[in-house]
Amino acid sequence: MTSPRGSRPGTARPSMADVARLAGVSSQTVSRVSNGQANVDEATRARVLDAMQTLGYRPNGAARALKSGRFHTIGVIMTTLQTLGNIRTLDAVATEAVHADNAVLLMPIPDPTLRSVSGAYQRLSAQAVDGAVIILEARFLDRAEFALPPGIPVVVIDSGAGPGYTVVDTDQALGARQATAHLLSLGHRRVWHVAGPETSFSAAHRSESWEGTLRAAGIEPPPLLRGDWTAESGYRHGLALGRRDDVTAIFAANDEMALGAMRALHELGRAVPGDVSIVGFDDMDGAASFWPPLTTVRQDFATVGRLSIRKLLDRVADPASPPDTTVVPTDLVIRASTAPPRP
Amino acid sequence: MTSPRGSRPGTARPSMADVARLAGVSSQTVSRVSNGQANVDEATRARVLDAMQTLGYRPNGAARALKSGRFHTIGVIMTTLQTLGNIRTLDAVATEAVHADNAVLLMPIPDPTLRSVSGAYQRLSAQAVDGAVIILEARFLDRAEFALPPGIPVVVIDSGAGPGYTVVDTDQALGARQATAHLLSLGHRRVWHVAGPETSFSAAHRSESWEGTLRAAGIEPPPLLRGDWTAESGYRHGLALGRRDDVTAIFAANDEMALGAMRALHELGRAVPGDVSIVGFDDMDGAASFWPPLTTVRQDFATVGRLSIRKLLDRVADPASPPDTTVVPTDLVIRASTAPPRP
DNA sequence: CACCAAGATGTTTACGCAAACATGGAACCG
DNA sequence: CGGTTCCATGTTTGCGTAAACATCTTGGTG
Known about the structure:
Two copies of one chain form a homodimer. By secondary structure, the first copy, chain A, is of the alpha/beta class. Among the domains of chain A are: 16-59, lambda repressor-like DNA-binding domains (434 Repressor (Amino-terminal Domain), Orthogonal Bundle), CATH 1.10.260; 172-299, Rossmann fold. Helices cover 41% and strands 15% of the residues of chain A. In chain A, α5 (84-99) links the parallel β1 (73-79) and β2 (103-109). The first copy, chain A, starts with 15 loop residues before the first helix and ends in a 10-residue tail after the last strand. Chain A binds a DNA duplex through residues 15-17, 25-32, 34-35, 39-41, 44, 59-60, 62-69.
């Protein structure tokens, strides 16, 4: 294996001038070659490329950015990488950004307080980014004190951020409707709901849609059960629900809570889906291997990521473009955790 | 909510010169204030800060980097965010980097080929980073064609990268030993192993250590079962193992494969842990809520992240510092999926 | 009171790159 | 064959910042 040496002593990073000297041309010609412009003689180009190779020349991003005002980098502000949705979204955004020849600058914020979000903005605007994607439970965006730094285009993912922002989001309401309607169509009379935390807009969208779907079917929704996305909270509610024999269908706002609920039902000796049907949300890795395999709602993170980057780059190119909101549809994935109620 | 306006038309981003003009000082004084240097009169400093506030001045990172040669940014090269370990490690690295006042530039590589890794390097060295953390199954680092770009300090995580690199990694061997020894100490005679893919160094370390532990106990290891980290592959092997009644203990190289194996055993009507005990690796979210809750090996990603950043920044400050390797110990988390074999 | 030290502030310069403009030579035209 | 075009290449300049150096002010000292 080649040895991972650093640069040789005294060998500072070569600049265009160094390359130019070696190739016997002006630095401007090196610049042209470096940027792939057309008006360069083939022989000259070859000589310059050769010199670059020899010296190990790499363009200096800082200088380039200073000159052009563009960094080809976008910032991503997000809470810590704890929830599946955030991770998948980040993955999609990063992949898409790289595809569009942009780098991704990660700005994790330690806790979801207004202060730390603002802090992230400070760092962001001091940093070298052309725009930013905010992956965030958006409660905080609705506060008056919260002002975006001027001059930085932003796209918000996963939120109920008011008008004035460009928003891309999964159609949470559709997903919850699919889940609830699926259980109703199997013949269940009531569908219980283990919701996500109050601070989350996604959770709010899902529970509102669950409630609306039931009401539209002429069914009075049972009391909402508040969880916090963790399997543990699903387990807690699962224990309570499993002890009642009038509970036959549960819609959990994410797969982990569904997992916890199923564990509780197992412990109580209740059959899934025989006694109780369960639907989750996210289609996390492994959901197909839960016991039983979980019926769940799949989000199209890839599309969310692609749209976000595309819209962001549009806004970078034309900051005056009007904000808009886009929702991406979900899919219901039917597996073995749902069945008609016992007659 | 405040309207998310962009900058006013014609209002380019203010520079130090603008601030200086408004405050009636030289731009150098603004620089001093901006960098918190001491030799500035209190009144002057206040006036400058005031002007900064008024104009909404933010230092230009590109110019600063061009001048200082430091970007306060580190690159992270990794395969897509699909595996839990990668995600957790990234989270830890990012958190730690921000803590050290560095930004994190994400460089995902689309597929684990030598070509795309090299491509990432190209982009990296063209980008504005002081150093890089490589989170990677390290097979590729051992290829002769693979040369690091000179002058960029690198720390490698999760690998068997040869000498010459600075490496930080979880003590995979320890974890596998803990898992295997736990099953042996419960009285199991043979421990079967569902391994990760051949291309993974982590997988190799885990299976080698599993084998070594058995041999040290005077037990001939059963044939190794090759998986690919997915629950599906665990399920496949679980079906095969569950059909033999001489199988009482399984060590899966990650939690998802353990999950799949358990599902297979459930389907076959074999009790876990009554008939078969299972140990996983990773302690993923929800592992405590599997049915049954999974005994597993927990990695200390936070420490890995912290050490990586610290070592990397050390190398940035002093590129001549000698490479070394550090391993971080694991913990065995004992839950309900393991028990003594039936007598 | 001349002189000096120390601190505050200003001026110059260079970082590496690329746009804008300048130059020089070859090909083409009537 | 004089003039016009076009293309390859060179020269100048400035992006925003901060180090290095220069200058000015203030107060204290012999």
